[in-house]
Write a structure and sequence with these properties.
Elements (H helix, E strand, L loop, with lengths): L13 E3 L2 E3 L7 E6 L3 E2 L13 E2 L2 H15 L1 E6 L9 H11 L2 E3 L1 E2 L9 H4 L3 H14 L10 E5 L8 H17 L3 E3 L4 H10 L7 E4 L7 H8 L2 E4 L4 H12 L6 E3 L19 H12 L4 H17 L3
Parallel strand pairs: 3-6, 6-7, 8-9, 9-10, 10-11, 11-12, 12-13
Antiparallel strand pairs: 1-2, 4-5
Helix pairs in contact: 1-2, 4-5, 5-6
Length: about 300
């Protein structure tokens, strides 16, 4: 692949929808797990949820632009992948309007949202599809993904089709150098499948780590990243526990928006929730600015470029 060496050369690059950039050019904070445009209202075998969507391009652009000015937001990782309403052209317009870099994703999310052709496809065919998007661009555009994800499972355990999709994500990551982001549901199981394919743990970010309170520690001990969203009191305790245990270098934080009701226009906390609510609480708990910069800037860029 022509660009497979981008993340392994001496000056690794972050691949955004508007082209690759160096980590040093991203001066501000990074939101590593967001949705800027998504649509998960309809899926095979799933009752529709009229609130499970986000298509407010102007408002999203306005929020990101405001955060660039107020909190030096530098980059957002957008994890709407195949079958979940991804729109690369919209992401390009958002980044142009907000002047905040956006990383888009490829990958198969979870069973009900997997294209019908992929349900019976083998791992090689699924991997080829991901590599084609990585090389040629997304949704008929020239925008290339910079992350594989968000991949996940829909039930308590992965189905055979979901396992093949996860294995394909690992193989595409090994071939391209792109990192992998997983959904919180089944996070530890997903991590084990990825590691079983030979993917190094430092290429993987596991979102929230589900409901098991011991899961975040298990993930970081394996060398993976934990990305905390839904940033309330429980997440504050988890973040402080990981920092106190010496794992600040494996912690990612993001507001984690995925629904229209969560943006500011409709009364939600918006993409600013991390900056307005959660980071002040970390500071009140005695976390230094150096550690906060590590978590909100250095860690996500290290994960995106797979630098260890």
């Amino acid at each position: 692949m022509p660009e497979a060496s981008l993340v392994t050369r001496e000056a690794p690059l972050v691949r955004t929808v508007s082209g690759p950039c160096t980590p040093s050019s991203v001066n501000g904070a990074v939101l590593p797990r967001e949705h800027l445009r998504s649509d998960m209202r309809w899926a095979a075998g799933v009752l529709s949820d009229p609130h499970r969507w986000l298509d407010e391009e102007q408002e999203v652009t306005r929020e990101l632009c405001g955060l660039r000015q107020s909190d030096r937001l530098g980059l957002v990782v957008e994890l709407s992948c195949i079958g979940t309403g991804r729109d690369a052209a919209s992401l390009a317009r958002v980044t142009a309007g907000s002047r905040v870099a956006v990383v888009a994703g490829t990958g198969f999310f979870a069973g009900p949202f997997t294209p019908s052709w992929a349900l019976d496809a083998d791992v090689d065919a699924l991997t080829r599809h991901l590599l084609t998007e990585i090389e040629d661009g997304l949704d008929g555009t020239s925008a290339r993904p910079g992350v594989i994800g968000e991949i996940g499972v829909w039930g308590d355990e992965p189905t055979p089709a979901e396992e093949r999709c996860v294995a394909a994500a690992a193989r595409a990551s090994l071939a391209s150098g792109l990192p992998v982001a997983t959904h919180h549901r089944g996070g530890l199981t997903l991590l084990e499948i990825l590691l079983g394919e030979g993917l190094p743990a430092h290429r993987v970010s596991v979102a929230d780590a589900g409901t098991d309170p011991s899961a975040p520690r298990k993930i970081v001990e394996r060398g993976g990243y934990v990305c905390l969203t839904s940033l309330g009191a429980d997440r504050l305790r988890q973040a402080l526990d990981l920092i106190d245990a010496g794992y600040a270098h494996r912690l990612l934080l993001s507001s984690g928006l995925s629904k229209v009701s969560e943006i500011e226009r409709y009364g939600g906390g918006g993409y600013s929730h991390l900056f307005r609510t959660f980071l002040p609480r970390l500071r009140e708990a005695g976390i230094s600015e150096e550690t906060i910069s590590l978590i909100t800037h250095d860690n996500p860029l290290r994960w995106l470029t797979c630098m260890e």
